[in-house]
Amino acid sequence: SYELTQPPSVSVSPGQTASITCSGDKLGDKYVSWYQQKPGQSPLLVMYEDTKRPSGIPERFSGSNSGNTATLTISGTQAMDEADYYCQAWDSSTVVFGGGTKLTVL
Amino acid sequence: QLYLQESGPGLVKPSETLSLTCTVSGASISSGTYYWGWIRQPPGKGLEWIGTIFYSGNTYYNPSLKSRISISIDTSKNHFSLRLTSVTAADTAVYYCATTSDIVTKVGDYWGQGTLVTVSS
Questions:
Q1: CA A95, A98, A104: angle at the middle one, nearest 5?
Q2: Is B38 within 8 Å of B50 (Cβ atoms)?
Q3: How confident is the model at residue A71, as a pLDDT?
Q4: B96 close contact with A: CB closer than 8 A
């Protein structure tokens, strides 16, 4: 079965750029979406089709996907961006999630 | 705006069947516009996709759960349902329903608030 690998944690200082990676075999050939989840809340779609932001998601969120790695980048990270982030892809008619990355803003 | 609300028992006994319903408002489940899915999250762990259904009845299931799950649509009530048989403690999780306009690019544009289901005797 297809697997997506994310680092368990990423730390960033306020105002700096945070990059969260998601790795999988030939991931660049698939569409990747990203979900933000804060404690006690449902996941929120923050990026889809690798680079598209849903309405209402700040411009500081951007995405890329090439080769075996997709990246969610948060520029000018704010305290409110502290959350768990999950990447997701579609493979062989199944949905696959990465294990999640805890983003700490400190 | 589209809203999803999960409902069902919060406690299920081991070996029994877990049944949940997701009621949809703001869209017709039979419109052919959306895919309807279930995702779960064990306490303190990550997201796990369970399965997704299209209004036509086409279903997509997690291979690791396929033998125990069934997802169905009731257009008259504008809701869709999940059945998970032979549950164990490992099935204890927050269960979310979600919908997307394109299952290939994303599993959930809109999500329900989630419902905690505990498997215990």
A1: 140
A2: yes
A3: 98
A4: yes
Q: Does B48 touch chain A (CB under 8 A)?
A: yes
B47 touching chain A per CB within 8 A: yes
Q: Please state the rounded mean pLDDT for residues A30-48.
A: 97
- Per residue in A60-96, pLDDT (tens digit) is 999 999 999 999 999 999 999 999 999 999 999 999 9
What does the mean pLDDT of chain A come to? 97
